[in-house]
């Protein structure tokens, strides 16, 4: 009996020591917002109060453009994912982008409700505050889902739609970023809110790129740092455990706006199967598949993906 007690004590001590070591190596505290702002909110970044949040956004380009381009990023990303596109688009157009709630510098929804409907309402409130009555709306992944749901709910506010590897249909991914898997797994997702190894972030970014050599240390640093904004790790967990609205995709057929469907041929998270479904269901759409590109074309292959957008905007 004494031997069993001794073994149990040794096991408990070993487990405790292991936990301490893991936290020591991989446990990260939230990075102070002031520090993150100094690094990622340089001009022309600004902040605006919407729905009780201090929303990080950028408003660039031609101020006389009455139908600006509005860009919405995807899960665990930020407005920076559209840096390269914006550098060109702002020469002639007004370009608006923001860190949507739960990600980037904006931080979590006050009500912690991460439904697509809540995101669509947030975009509407943002546009109202910015005085935008009509726009060309573009979104990647989750941002694409928000964009098409916004077009369904507020059709008069959308002139054109650009869906970039957008979610919305039931999907069978060929591969999923490890961070998404952890955030979706009970118990592990709780641990993720304070233990977030940098290699998990790097692996997750590489997962959505076809060409892994384009994933630089600076790029990983940005994703990793913004993950450590207070509330963002919990927001990812909350977003991932949210139940999907069944058959919401049937509303896609009601969208009448000219739509560009832009997709990476090597997207393993949301495969081209969804791209072809969008093309079939959207009556006024154009499909562009980009070879040797993954889930984030505007980031991985900015010039090639933007060329398709510029051509679409001319029509």
What can you tell me about this protein's structure?
This protein has about 325 residues and is an alpha/beta fold. It folds into 2 domains: about 1-30; about 35-315, 3-Layer(aba) Sandwich (Rossmann fold), CATH 3.40.50. About 45% of the residues lie in helices and about 15% in strands. It has 13 helices and 8 strands. The protein has helices spanning about 1-25, 35-40, 85-90, 115-130, 140-155, 180-185, 190, 200-205, 215-225, 230-240, 270-280, 295-300, 300-315, and strands spanning about 45-50, 55-60, 70, 95-100, 135-140, 160-165, 260-265, 285-290. It has an 8-stranded mixed beta sheet, with helices on both faces. Helix 4 (about 115-130) crosses helix 5.
End-to-end gap: 82 Å
Mean pLDDT: 91
Question: How many distinct folded domains?
Answer: 2
Q: Order of strands side by side in the largest beta sheet?
A: 1-2-4-3-5-6-7-8
Give me the CATH fold name of the largest domain: Rossmann fold
Tertiary shape: globular
Number of helices: 13
CATH superfamily of the largest domain: Alpha/Beta hydrolase fold, catalytic domain
Question: Could you name the CATH class of the largest domain?
Answer: Alpha Beta
Number of strands: 8
Strand content: 15-25%
- Rg from Cα: 21 Å
Helix and strand run: HHEEEHEHEHEHHHHHEHEHH
Q: Estimate percent helicity.
A: 40-55%
Largest sheet: 8 strands, mixed
In the CATH hierarchy, the architecture of the largest domain is 3-Layer(aba) Sandwich
Structural class of the secondary structure composition? alpha/beta
